Amino acid sequence: MKPPTPTSYLFLAPLAILLIVFVLPSLRPSPSRAGTDGLGVLCARRAGFPDSLSVAAPASDSPPPPTQPEPEPEFSLLVGILTMPSRRERRDIVRTAYALQPPPTPRARVDVRFVFCNVADPVDAALLSLEIKRHGDILVLDCAENMNDGKTYAYLSAVPRLFASTPYDYVMKTDDDTYLRVAELAKELRGKPREDVYLGYGYAMGGQPMPFMHGMGYVVSWDVATWLGGAGAAEILARNDTHGPEDLMVGKWLNLAGKGRNRYDLKPRMYDLNWDMDNFRPDTVAVHMLKDNRRWAATFRYFNVTAGVEPSDLYHLP
């Protein structure tokens, strides 16, 4: 066999240069992506979405302009969505629905959490742990899972203790079959008192205009929730008044104690979706009875939640 001549090495030199310039850098992990899954980055790039890399601005001798401080919110609201561990698909829909909503005006701090009683099943516990790690929006109360046997009381009475360090102005209870338009609710709360408030879809009964609010969703002020978990607890528990239709029970607690005197009825802007799904309102605050994906889809279409999807070769939607 003939030894290689110096000329043959000249042919290999360009290949070596290509290897050094293009291949080796791609094999080194990027320091900005340590601990991340590269598949997500690749998919984002292929789809044309920006990834976590940013381009630094050219160096300048002048200091950067001072950043403006974020304005303080006018008020704060905790929204508790009562649900059950098995309704994982529903939670995915609801999370996405709230994430795509525009920020409320007036400026408000609105926190949304899914509310459970004790999770006893190991499978549910494992899957719920994933949601906690990924989303951090789970609240598990010390009670047996139920609908009308004390879960609402457990939620409202526990909130002042659980969030004592960062209290809210208002606390809302709603369900996972209700679509709440947060910006519209914020407009309703703007200018309302911060104390002794009870707001929702008011029911008339026994000659009274609003003895209680419909269970699709209602708001109480922080002082009312504090009373439920404090001074009012002994009286409520002594009467065993946590068992029964939860919306009726809340109205009963407040009526007997003379609480929630600042009452606000938001109907017809809060309502049940009818069978034909044709009673939507453009000024909706909350629409209830979204019991299946078909009704959620109709709701999203009406409020243009699904509008503006960029065209792409990667999907073809009707």
From TrEMBL:
Domain of life the protein comes from: Eukaryota
Main location: Golgi
EC number in record: 2.4.1.-
Keywords attached to this entry: Glycosyltransferase, Golgi apparatus, Manganese, Membrane, Signal, Signal-anchor, Transferase, Transmembrane, Transmembrane helix
Compositional bias segments (type: Pro residues): 61-70
Membrane-topology descriptor: Single-pass type II membrane protein
Keyword Transmembrane helix tagged: yes
One Pfam entry name: Galactosyl_T
Signal peptide: 1-34
Location(s) in or outside the cell: Golgi apparatus membrane
Keyword Metal-binding recorded: no
GO cellular component, one term: Golgi membrane
Top class in the EC scheme: transferase
Region (Disordered): 54-73
Family statement drawn from the similarity comment of this UniProt entry: Belongs to the glycosyltransferase 31 family.
Protein name: Hexosyltransferase
Species of origin: Urochloa decumbens
